[in-house]
Amino acid sequence: MALYKSQNSESLWFNENEEIQELASVLHYNLHNISTEGLDEEVPYLEKFDSIFKTEIENEKSLKNNDILISSLYLYYNDKVVEGTDYNSRKLGWFISKKKVDYIHLIDSIKANPDADIKKITFIDQYYKLHEKLLFYNEIEKKGGWKKIAYSKNDFPINLDDNSTVISAVKKRLIREGYLNHDDSSNVFNVSLKVALKEYQETNSLTINDTIITSELLENLNKPVEEKITTLKLNMERCRWMDPKLFNSNELIFVNIPAFQLNYFKNDILAFNTKVVVGKNASKTVIFDNQLSYIVFAPYWNVPKSIINDEIIPGIEKDENYLEKHKMEWNDGNVRQLPGPWNSLGLIKFIFPNSNNIYLHDTPSKNLFNQDVRAFSHGCIRVENPDILAEKILTNDPKWTKETIHKAMNGKTETTYELETKIPVVISYFTAWVNEKGQLIFYNDIYKRDKRLAKIIL
Questions:
Q1: pLDDT for 168-222, tens place per residue?
Q2: SS (H, E, C) 122-186
Q3: How far from chain centre, in Å, is Cα 392?
Q4: Which of 211, 164, 213, 216 has its CA nearest to residue 186?
Q5: In 3D, which of 354, 245, 346 has the Cα closest to residue 292?
Q6: Enzyme catalytic residues
Q7: Beta carbons of 360 and 386 less than 8 angstroms apart
Q8: What is the DSSP letter of 14?
Q9: From CA 420, how far away is CA 422, in angstroms rounded?
Q10: Residue 152 phi/psi, 5° resolution?
Q11: What's the Cα-to-Cα distance from 130 to each of 26, 59, 247, 295, rounded to whole Å?
Q12: Which end of the chain has fewer CB atoms < 10 Å from its terminal CB, N or C?
């Protein structure tokens, strides 16, 4: 076995005195607690592993057999917990670079640092944050979850300062999940409840309306704790697929599709956050990673063939001035839209070359950023404040000030800026995410990807 050859040893888990090493004890503990990693696995040969700690080694053959058993369970643990379920994640539309686990290098690293936890070497930081939240909700489940709030259509409307038995039930429910830290035992819709409801709506992707209790809100509150636990497990699995190296760059552009948000990190600090519009269900934004290579100011929009066939040609057939009215022109048999505020790409685009032809860009349709659910595009990602993103990216180039950026954006000719150092771009899909404030946010599964993943891993 390659694992033993790398160590130049017949035993990995026992010392020269035939005593089991601490590293094996850590593995043993982790296997017994595999459910806390969001996996409902029945670990094979776990009873046999238990017995190794209880009985003395009889002979050299017994020692070798025990050592091989532990090595097998080490590989099993890493396959399930570190690397993730063994299937092709691309079948689920996940094209982000998947990490490759070198088990030999991994055990070398652990032996060099015996106090290290196996799982803490190969995960992105978000995994541990979701893990902590999973433990929290597991405890709620052990205590019976939360009671459903009984209500009828006659209970509504319920407004701030109103008095209702539904209100006291809502308070108890929010206390159970930690949104309220005390129960005032009253039926009054008071300010403390208003504050708690606002936070609950923000962290559960609900429309903010913190002065009215609606049936839609109660329906969400009545979802069982098991549903949230499932969502956490699914997103921990997604974390397993991701290579931590993606997050080790000095800069990172991170888009979470269900959140409709773009985060720009610099030196591990969130330097900028903005709303985005993503692909509608019929033209889903692809989940992948690449590197931002250049920025285009005052861009042409080279209209895709599908849009030419489905929209523009029928438009020309109805109106011979269609192209002129839409500031478009023919270009070598294709159609492009001229630079300007009317351009579908707006005044700037950010290119990370990829076969999916996905990129970030401005848009003249600013009103769409006011929507809670922002899935309207043909697949590309529209950015609410692209000028600020450009300023953040170009902050170290003295030639590109705020003024020169805006001048280039509003120019009549296309200008391209090539980055000296490319910036990793990750277009992800997480329906549960712990933000920089430590808040766990649940997002709507807009592309219905959770169900497909749940069928495979749960």
A1: 999 999 999 999 988 777 999 999 999 999 999 999 999 999 999 999 999 999 9
A2: CCCHHHHHHHHHHHHHHHHHHCCCCCCCCCCHHHCCEECCCECHHHHHHHHHHHHHCCCCCCCCC
A3: 23
A4: 164
A5: 354
A6: 361, 380
A7: yes
A8: B
A9: 6
A10: -135, 170
A11: 21, 44, 17, 34
A12: N
- Which three-class secondary structure string do you get for 219-233? HHHCCCHHHHHHHHH
The C-alpha atoms of residue 175 and residue 301 are separated, in whole angstroms, by 52
Contacts of 58 (CB under 8 A, 6+ apart): none
Burial of 20 per CB tally in 10 Å (0-12, 13-18, 19+): middle
Q: What's phi and psi for 432, nearest 5 deg?
A: -145, 135
| CB contact at 8 A, 347 and 410 | yes
Query: Which residues, in sequence order, are CB contacts of 199 under 8 Å at separation 6+?
Result: 179, 439
Question: Which tens digit of pLDDT belongs to each residue from 392-429?
Answer: 999 999 999 999 999 999 999 999 999 999 999 999 99
Block mean pLDDT (10 aa), the chain, length 458: 70 86 90 93 94 79 90 91 77 86 77 66 90 98 97 93 96 95 88 96 96 95 98 96 88 98 95 98 96 98 92 95 96 95 97 95 96 95 98 95 97 96 97 96 97 89
Residue from 106, 129, 136 nearest 119 by CA = 106
Do residues 353 and 427 lie in contact, with contact meaning Cβ atoms separated by under 8 Å? no
Q: What is the DSSP string of 234-251?
A: HHHHHHHHB-GGGG-SSE
Please give the Cα distance from 220 to 236 (Å, whole number).
Answer: 22
Amino acid at 195: V
Half-sphere exposure in the Cβ direction for 383 (13 Å, CA): 25
